[in-house]
Amino acid sequence: MSSRKEYIQQAIDLFGSQAALGAKIGFSQNAVFKALSLGRVSPVMAARIEAVTAKRKRKIPRELLCPVFKKLKVPSDGKFPPHDDVED
Predict the structure, then answer these.
(1) Could you give the CA distance from residue 71 to residue 73 in angstroms, rounded to a whole number?
(2) pLDDT tens figures, 1-36
(3) Is the model's pTM score more than 0.90?
(4) Using CA atoms, how far apart are residues 31 and 86, in angstroms rounded to an integer?
(5) Which of 26, 57, 65, 74 places its Cα 20 to 30 Å from the Cα of 42?
């Protein structure tokens, strides 16, 4: 089983550098470096990495990058069904 750091590194390798991955996902190179160093990413970063790697046909699922998604049942399209208690 690979570690989160290895999955983050795979995403970096896919785009060629930390700066290139950061540009694709809307984060700075420093944020990508920090995520790699700590071995964890925010839920937003995980979802964005999943989206950009899926376009490259080497999808890295968000669940492998961020443990929050293992606990939550989040639809793969990121859209939740409407709730009765929410007004339009």
Answers:
(1) 7
(2) 479 999 999 999 999 999 999 999 999 999 999 999
(3) no
(4) 34
(5) 57
Residue carrying the six token digits 């470096």: 33
Select 4-67's CATH number: 1.20.1260.10, 3.50.50.60, 1.10.260.40, 3.30.1700.10.
1.10.260.40
8 A C-beta contact, residue 65 and residue 3: no
| Cα separations in angstroms, 7 against 29, 58, 63, 78 | 17, 11, 11, 21
Contact between residue 36 and residue 5 where contact means Cβ atoms under 8 Å apart: yes
